Amino acid sequence: MSGYSVEGGCTCHAVRYRLVCPPLFVHCCHCHWCQRETGSAFVINALIEGCYVERLGDRPMIDRIPSASGRGQQVARCACCKTAVWSHYSLGEALYFIRVGTIDEPDLLPPDAHIFVASKQKWLSLTDRKPVCLDFYDREELWPEESLRRFEALTASEGV
Fold first, then answer.
1. How far apart are CA 50 and CA 93, in angstroms?
2. pLDDT in tens, 33-67
């Protein structure tokens, strides 16, 4: 992890961040909720513990919006340009879902898997040979061992 550094931010560069550790996992979500929220066919999220995200610029505003689970999500947006840079779900700020499209070099974090492909746009062909899941995935099956250990430590520290 030492020396790892990936930066990103919003369109106007007011909100900036740095990842100082590789993400736990990167997934490409094809659910209708993500399609609606992004206005696109999918969103790519890099899951990473909050302790490995350094905020470099302005503090984003937080929008609370509905989610398919019914528990909602918190979307961090730039107050100026309104770009969504990350989201938080049930673990709050302990776990970030970084929008890979906001990374300065998004090619550095390709998806490890495609999820919710049951609602994938029919015109989209998945040819990258990554695992494909009709809905969510089994973390134990797809995540690397190191990521599973980190996630277990995170949930233990959060009392989950």
1. 6
2. 888 888 999 999 999 999 999 999 999 999 887 77
Matching residue, tokens 């599973």: 148
Question: For residue range 111-151, what is the model confidence (pLDDT) as tens digits?
Answer: 999 999 999 999 999 999 999 999 999 999 999 999 999 99
User: What is the SS3 string spanning the chain?
Assistant: CCCCCEEEECCCCCCEEEECCCCCEEEEECCHHHHHHHCCCCEEEEEEEHHHEEECCCCCEEEEECCCCCCCEEEEECCCCCCEEEEECCCHHHEEEEEHHHECCHHHCCCCEEECHHHCCCCCCCCCCCCECCCCCCHHHHCCHHHHHHHHHHHHHCCC
Query: Which domains can be identified in the chain, with CATH numbers?
Result: 6-157 (2.170.150.70)
CB-CB neighbours of 46 under 10 Å: 26
> What is the pairing mode between strands 53-55 and 16-19?
antiparallel
